[in-house]
Amino acid sequence: GENVEQHPSTLSVQEGDSAVIKCTYSDSASNYFPWYKQELGKRPQLIIDIRSNVGEKKDQRIAVTLNKTAKHFSLHITETQPEDSAVYFCAARIYNFNKFYFGSGTKLNVKP
Amino acid sequence: DGGITQSPKYLFRKEGQNVTLSCEQNLNHDAMYWYRQDPGQGLRLIYYSQIVNDFQKGDIAEGYSVSREKKESFPLTVTSAQKNPTAFYLCASSSSTGFKTKPQHFGDGTRLSIL
User: Fold this and answer.
1) Considering only CA atoms, which of B3, B2, B11, B13 is closest in space to residue B89?
2) φ/ψ of residue A84, rounded to 5
3) Is the pLDDT of residue B99 over 60?
4) Residue B114 pLDDT greater than 90, yes or no
5) How far is it, in rounded angstroms, from Cα B75 to Cα A94?
C-alpha cells in the first residue's frame, strides 16, 4: 500500500514569513494529492489539491508543487497570518482506488 | 461541509457497552470512510465503503464494526472489544473513480469518551 510521510511535525514562523510543509509518497500509482487544514476540534477542510498531470497549482497565498519523479509534494503558504495557525495534513490517493493515505500532520504556529 | 452529518457530537461509553456513531450524507457520494484521530495525531482509517453493501477494513478495524445498507448512511459501532475508544471520530465521503478524483468531505466529528 501507499506510505505518506510528512515533515516537519511542528513549524513556527513569524507573521508575514513563508511556511513550507513537505510530503513524500511511496506508490508511483498515486495520482491525486489533497491538502487539508484542521483547526482545533474541527473537521479537516480542503485548502488545495493537485493531480499528477500538473506540476504546480496556486490559489492566492497557497501553492502546492508536485515532483512525480522524486515522489514528493509540498505546500507553500506565503505572507502567513495568525489565522493560518492550524494542523495541516497531506494525503495521497492511488489511481482508481477510493482510499486516501494521510500524512501525520504539521502543526503550524504563526506568531504575531 | 453541510452535506455530511455526524451525530452525536459528544458520546460517553460505559465499560462493556457498544455504542453507535451515526454518519449521513446527502452528497450522493459512493464512497464513505471512518477515521479515528487521537489528540495531536493524524487520521487513521478504521473502515471504508466504496459501494452499498460492501465495506473493507482499514488499518485499525479491530473493536469496530460498520454497515452500509444505504448509500446515504455509514454507521460505526464501537464495540466493548475496543479497550481504548476515547478519540475524535471523523466520517468522510467522496465521489471519485478513475482519473477525475474529487476530494473527501468530512463531517464535524464525534468525540467519544469513556465514563
Assistant:
1) B11
2) -80, -10
3) no
4) no
5) 25
Give chain B positions within 8 Å (CB) of A99.
45, 48
Percentage of the residues of chain B whose pLDDT score is greater than 70: 93
CA distance A55 to chain B (A): 16
Amino acid present at B51: I
Instruction: Give the number of A-B residue pairs with CB atoms closer than 8 Å.
Output: 56
Total number of residues shown for chain B: 115
Residues of chain A found within 8 Å of residue B48, distances taken between Cβ atoms: 98-99
At residue A106, does pLDDT exceed 70? yes
Give the residue among B39, B34, B48 at the shortest CA–CA distance from B89. B34
Q: B72 is written with which cell numbers? A: 446515504
Q: Pick B101 or A10 by higher pLDDT.
A: A10
Q: Which helix (H) or strand (E) holds A50?
A: strand A45-51
